[in-house]
Design goal:
The structure holds two protein chains of two kinds. By secondary structure, chain A is of the alpha/beta class. Chain A is 23% helix and 23% strand. Chain A is built from six helices and twelve strands. A six-stranded parallel beta sheet of chain A has the order 1-12-7-4-2-3, sandwiched between helices. The longest helix of chain A has 14 residues. Helix content of chain B is 48%, strand content 12%. A six-stranded parallel beta sheet of chain B has the order 1-10-7-4-2-3, with helices on both faces. In chain B, strands 8-5-6-9 form a four-stranded mixed beta sheet. Chain B has a two-stranded antiparallel sheet with strand order 11-12. In chain B, a hairpin with a 4-residue loop joins strand 5 and strand 6. Chain B is globular and about 55 Å long. Classes of the chains: A alpha/beta, B alpha/beta. Strand 9 of chain A pairs antiparallel with strand 9 of chain B. Bound molecules: iron/sulfur cluster. Iron/sulfur cluster binds next to helix 14 of chain B.
Chain lengths: 220, 492
């Protein structure tokens, strides 16, 4: 008998006393919890996102669509970055005003090569206001998981308000589980030494989030 | 289950030593009090905590009730997504599977993200015996590993070490294993973290094999979830070519939607954060992104035996948040090492004796490592009634009865009079000699009265027959909690 059969057999014997019933799963669990906490306008939700991101030590910037390229150029220059990793589908216009060397996200580049890159710029899939979280799903404007991991400086652009949801329950339906997902709430951090919080052990030590107002004039 | 620390004395003996270690107690008290005060605040932020807790409990109970079905479904969805599923009945089998998988890659080094399951089965030691070196990459685990030490807390495993000790360990040991600590390393946390970053980065960038556990596995989609803070998890899950995840069979949730409950309750209960800095989710393999080979090793190792116990099975709901450790007056004094297993504190006191059986002295004494104050139940985000299970296990130790071991029903003999009696009495005496442990609060919910008998169950009865047990405090736990700001203001 295979171990698989052994384990499954043990499981079945272990729960032989339990009435199984045939309630469909949707009705088996009481989901009396909230879909979001509080009652906020769209603007307030975006404000809360900014506040919670900052509370976990991300650096938050807000701008209009037309100001984005200049802002990004300024952030890279301010940090003294000479190279930036760029996902294949990133909006070209975002980098229009910077001349730092672009390092394309390629499958055959090695982790060591990536380790020599100063910064990375990505979009995101969704951002969660209540927890101050951005979620990347490996889409063309976000690139492979490793480009937001190895460089020490990550700039993430969130289109507001369209990409912002209030809560975790609202975020999950917008994500595709088949994709590799990375949820980021503030930069890498540890409290392992006498519970003192230290930013950055392994992931990027600086996370800058740009909330770009993408709403067309007179939008909803 | 292997992983009993060799020659481990019973809980009271081990605890006795810890209680006299001033540094350890100071560090622990600082840690547990800080975390629990923060946690109370994080929980207070969500008005539907009670509902989330109830939903979490129901999801896990439902999963356990249909565990066979969900295991099969998980296997199908992981396989469909390009992963390879292995089954292991016990620690030896799991270790053999992992060692063989690593050997097939031709590598002799692996990077690991902290995983209680792999600690439980003693994977690092098993790999070492096969000539494979496993590097722990969590900062605390690195401290523990370099210090040739044992973890003392689920969440902050090196909490028993202070910064001076950590600096010494780094300066002395790092060069043995790779990049040495920088010259003139001081003991500021930032410098220590930087030293760890440089030391470990060297390993991450060249690693070909990563080993992890998982916090959740979604049956419906085959998705694995790892929740962490430092980014070492992302490193291990992303950079290597081969990823091997070793996960207990109880870690399943049925649907993608279920994550909405646990991604809210776990971080708040655990690190007292709205959300932990990083959560990685992957489903099988993805072309050109992350490991090209993914193995999932599903381990039983005592879990089905635990599942067979009607009262004790609720321990399998545990999501390893560690909240119960931080409120436990006994843990605070005894420290994690006294529990003699990778699962310390209240959850360890009910999980270890179930996973391993109660044959050894330490496992027979663990159900007594509690004052039954009920604080652990109050904070548990999946509402595990730890006191209920403790009492149940005490009865089993002293009265014997039918239990399941390795899938077979066996009848346990009552623990032999003297040894068990002595162990129980030592534990009881120890707890009662430390009135702070009891003062911290008694559980006064009406249904818990049976946990505060006038006499101790089993062999303790002989002892309590001639002594009065401490009376219950006049103040209910909840009131005490509020009045003292979660225990911070008791001035103990
Ligand atoms: S028993 Fe409950 S409180 Fe303790 S670690 Fe498990 S889930 Fe957390």
């Amino acid at each position: 008998m295979s171990t698989r059969d052994v384990v499954l057999g043990r499981v079945r014997r272990a729960i032989a006393d339990v009435p199984r019933g045939n309630t469909p799963y949707e009705q088996a669990v009481d989901r009396g919890y909230l879909r979001e906490h509080g009652d906020r306008s769209v603007e307030e939700t975006v404000d809360l996102l900014a506040e919670n991101l900052a509370d976990y030590r991300a650096i938050v910037h807000r701008c209009e669509a037309g100001e984005l390229a200049a802002l990004i150029a300024g952030l890279l220059a301010g940090r003294g970055s000479t190279s930036v990793a760029v996902p294949p589908g990133l909006d070209e216009a975002w980098l229009a005003e910077t001349d730092v060397t672009r390092v394309p996200d390629r499958g055959d580049s090695t982790p060591h090569e990536l380790d020599r890159v100063d910064s990375v710029i990505t979009a995101c899939a969704v951002a969660i206001a209540e927890t101050g979280t951005i979620v990347l799903d490996g889409g063309p404007d976000q690139g492979r998981r490793r480009i937001t991991l190895v460089p020490d400086h990550h700039i993430c652009v969130v289109r507001v308000p369209d990409q912002v949801v209030s809560s975790v329950p609202q975020a999950l339906p917008r994500l595709d589980p088949a994709r590799p997902l990375t949820w980021i709430s503030g930069p890498s951090a540890t409290s392992d030494i006498e519970l003192d919080r230290v930013e950055g052990v392994h992931g990027p030590r600086t996370l800058e989030v740009v909330l770009v107002n993408d709403r067309t004039v007179g939008g909803n | 289950m292997s992983g009993t620390f060799v020659g481990m004395p019973s809980f009271p003996k081990a605890a006795h030593e810890a209680v006299h270690n001033q540094t350890l107690r100071g560090n622990l008290r600082h840690a547990t009090h800080t975390i629990r005060a923060k946690r109370a605040k994080a929980v207070a932020e969500v008005s539907d905590w009670a509902e989330l807790r109830e939903a979490g409990k129901q999801i896990k109970d439902h999963t356990l009730r249909h565990l066979d079905r969900y295991l099969v479904q998980l296997e199908e969805s992981v396989t469909a997504a390009g992963g390879i599923v292995h089954w292991a009945a016990d620690a030896d089998e799991a270790n053999r599977i992992v060692a063989d998988l690593v050997k097939t890659t031709g590598e002799s080094e692996v990077v690991k993200v902290k995983s209680m399951a792999t600690q439980e089965i003693g994977l690092n030691e098993a790999l070492e015996a096969e000539g494979i070196h496993a590097y722990e990459t969590d900062l605390a685990e690195l401290i523990v590993q370099l210090g040739k030490d044992r973890p003392s807390h689920i969440l902050v495993p090196a909490i028993h070490r202070n910064r001076g000790e950590i600096r010494e360990i780094f300066a002395r040991e790092m060069s043995e294993w790779g990049r040495p600590a920088p010259e003139g390393l001081t003991d500021t946390p930032a410098e220590l973290a930087e030293a760890a970053r440089l030391h470990l980065r060297e390993k991450f960038l060249r690693a070909k094999v990563g080993i992890s556990g998982a916090n959740f596995m979604v049956a419906e989609t085959g998705t694995m979830v790892v929740v962490e803070s430092e980014g070492n998890g992302r490193m291990c899950l992303t950079l290597p070519e081969t990823l091997i995840s070793v996960v207990g069979i109880e870690k399943i949730v049925p649907t993608w939607q279920d994550l909405e409950v646990f991604l809210q309750t776990l971080p708040r209960s655990s690190t007292a954060e709205r959300m932990n800095p990083y959560t990685s989710m992957w489903t099988g393999t993805t072309d050109g992104d992350g490991p090209s080979t993914f193995h999932l090793v599903l381990i039983d190792n005592g879990r089905t035996d635990t599942l067979a116990d009607e009262v004790g099975r609720q321990a399998l709901r545990c999501i390893r948040c560690s909240a119960c450790l931080n409120v436990c007056p006994v843990y605070e004094r005894a420290g994690g090492h006294a529990y003699g297993s990778v699962y310390p504190g209240p959850i360890g006191a009910i999980l270890s004796p179930q996973l391993r059986g109660t044959a050894s002295e330490i496992d027979a004494s663990l159900p007594y490592a509690s004052s039954l104050c009920g604080a652990c139940y109050e904070v548990c985000p999946v509402a595990i009634d730890i006191p209920e299970v403790l009492v149940h296990l005490r009865e089993r130790v002293v009265e014997g009865g039918a239990v399941t071991r390795d899938g077979n029903e066996v009848v346990l003999k009552p623990a032999k009079g003297h040894a068990a009696e002595r162990a129980a009495m030592r534990a009881a005496r120890w707890a009662f000699k430390h009135p702070g442990a009891l003062r911290t609060g008694q559980r006064l919910a009406s249904r818990s009265r049976r946990f505060h008998p006038r006499s101790l169950p089993g062999p303790g009865a002989a002892w309590s027959a001639t002594r009065d047990l401490p009376t219950m405090p006049s103040e209910p736990f909840r009131d005490w909690w509020q009045r003292t700001n979660g225990g911070k203001d008791t001035g103990k």
